[in-house]
Amino acid sequence: MLSTILSAFTVAEIRKKLLFTAALLALYRLGSHLPVPGISTQAVNDIQKNFQGQGILNFLNLFSGGGLSRIAVFALGIMPYITASIILQLLTVVVPSLEKLSKEGEVGQARITQYTRYLTVGLALAQSVGYVFLFKSFSSQVGQQVIVNFNFAKLFLIVVSLTAGCVLLMWMGELITQRGIGNGISLMIFASIVSRLPHGVQAWWTNPDAVFKVMMPIIVFAVVAAVVFIQEGQRRIPIQYAKRVIGRRMSQGGQTYLPLRVNMAGVIPVIFAASLMAFPPTVGQLVHTHWATSVSNFFSPNKWPYVVGESILIILFTYFYTAVTFNPVDQADNLKKYGGFIPGVRPGRPTAEFLDRILARLTFPGALYLAAVAALPTVLINQTSANFFFGGTSLLIVVGVALDTMKQLEAQLMMRNYEGFLK
């Protein structure tokens, strides 16, 4: 990995892309420390202490890089855009017009991207209003006004500031994807999680439990190794292409393979399940009634109902998202169209059934793996009463984004430094 990074800086074009990506990520971290106008800085310091005891708020604060606890311009983070993207992907399967757009190539994808941006603005507005009233309710806990001279004008100013910050992050993420290295949205979440690394190391080093201090690095390295092993695991389906006559030329047949990953859904099911499970505790924080508080306490992130519910949702969404991203019928039709077939399997419907059966067998261990990694920190917290700054979702995102970014970097290097037979 280090040799790849050092080699990347020797190529001028890749070096510019890396510096451009680093500059935008630095701006993102700067915006996570700039408070919105009309906020009491002293009250914000007290709120940050309050966040350490709020399970769901601490979870949401992790994905904003600490911006939510500071009521910063980038307090919403990039999560509204991710939620909007997931909703549009799910609606593509249900709404025929969106499904038709998804099959129209770049023009259709551009239209879906535009719809995603509009939905992001709507979600950011709704979340901004909710967060303003949530932070206003903290005034009684911290003993002073969090929002000074609260009125409609101040509400409008803060909501517009938070929404504009989310839209700016969306634009910065797209710029990184187009002109930098890696996926911009994923790298922003990666930066938000990694920014909490010093707090996690400090919590581990100052923990009074000696067994925990010794076992924690071993557990972390073991889990990271398991995540890398499963993320890179794949089943290779052999594909044979017959000879074809194209015009006056005959193309030679060949043999290749179709890679089916164990975890084809990535971290999307974990993020979506965590978002749904975060809804009841968030409502409990906003609505101060007896039943809302009871539901919020019942689905607290550090309790077993939350773990069981999240695990079930992860398994369901893994199957659903895998079915959305990989269609065995379309894959079988494409193979038949280009003269490809799986040895021992007839083209057409038998090939689709074969791929569907293989995919179902691969998805089950992949879904269990995602659920286990997501639930592991909560189980350890309940057993050891230790403070973990990184959950399973965070670990999956960090490792997955790091692997994808390194693959893109290696592909850029290979494209510019590849040496063939002719020199």
* Level-2 CATH architecture of the largest domain: Orthogonal Bundle
CATH superfamily of the largest domain: SecY subunit domain
Q: Proportion of β residues?
A: 5-15%
Element-by-element helix/strand order: HHHHHHHHHHHHEEEEHHHHHEHH
Total of helices: 19
Round the mean pLDDT to the nearest integer and report it.
78
Strand order of the largest sheet: 4-1-5
Radius of gyration: 24 Å
The CATH class label of the largest domain is Mainly Alpha
How many runs of DSSP E, i.e. beta strands?
5
| Sheet with the most strands, sense and barrel status | 3 strands, antiparallel
Judging from the principal axes of the Cα atoms, what is the shape? globular
* Annotated CATH topology of the largest domain: Preprotein translocase SecY subunit
User: How many angstroms separate the termini?
Assistant: 27 Å
How much helix is in the residues?
Answer: over 70%
Question: Structural class, please?
Answer: mainly alpha
Number of domains in the coordinates?
2
